[in-house]
TrEMBL record:
Coiled coil: none annotated. Belongs to the ABC transporter superfamily. SUPFAM superfamilies: P-loop containing nucleoside triphosphate hydrolases. It comes from Pararhodobacter aggregans. This is Sulfonate ABC transporter ATP-binding protein. Keywords: ATP-binding, Nucleotide-binding, Transport.
Amino acid sequence: MIEARGLNLTFHTNDGPVHALKDVDLTIGKGEFVSFIGPSGCGKTTLLRAIADLEHPTGGSLTVNGMSPEAARKARAYGYVFQAAGLYPWRTIEGNVRLPLQIMGYSRAEQAERARKVLELVELSGFERKFPWQLSGGMQQRASIARALAFDADILLMDEPFGALDEIVRDRLNEELLKLWARTGKTIGFVTHSIPEAVYLSTKIVVMSPRPGRITDVIDSTLPAERPLEIRDTPEFIAIAHRVREGLRAGYEDS
């Protein structure tokens, strides 16, 4: 679904070039849940934004669903969930979810049906007429996920969507996201700073180094598909988390 080969990305600033990504090689298969983890400024979000055609590589190659990122964006091959929910306060929750569908020219009946389905999927049925300010932070992020799912793209890109939430809410949304992924079969790219979150959610964990962002390890998870929160106390979970920490440490040593 996503393939990068020798990917480089350099920003040109008044203070000189900033090398955000260097020689990134990565393959993400259909239906995988892939987390990107690394220190602040390591290029995690830049890589996600390059996949979404929001940043433009300066070297190497990148394909998304078999096409260029620009073609994938125009084909609406992905939905994108930002760190902040980004809901319009003057629109209802249903109105926010329907917005991309309106822009894409779906009929009112199709908008209503798709909004109903995705709000049910994220357990927000009954909140269609509420406004964002009437919902908790966790509910707002679920509405943001529903909006990204509304046009049924194959790929869901998520940039630290739960980073600003407290640990209890974050745990619950992690559980819900796994259930959502199991029901939809989407390919998910997920940026996080949390090692437990990355290990709990992912089928594959991509560990990145400090800038310039390089991949120091790619870990294929051996955890079962069914993952109660208690799995975080198992030796298998702890071993994967240890390997992530080792990859992060190696990235610092090599930088």
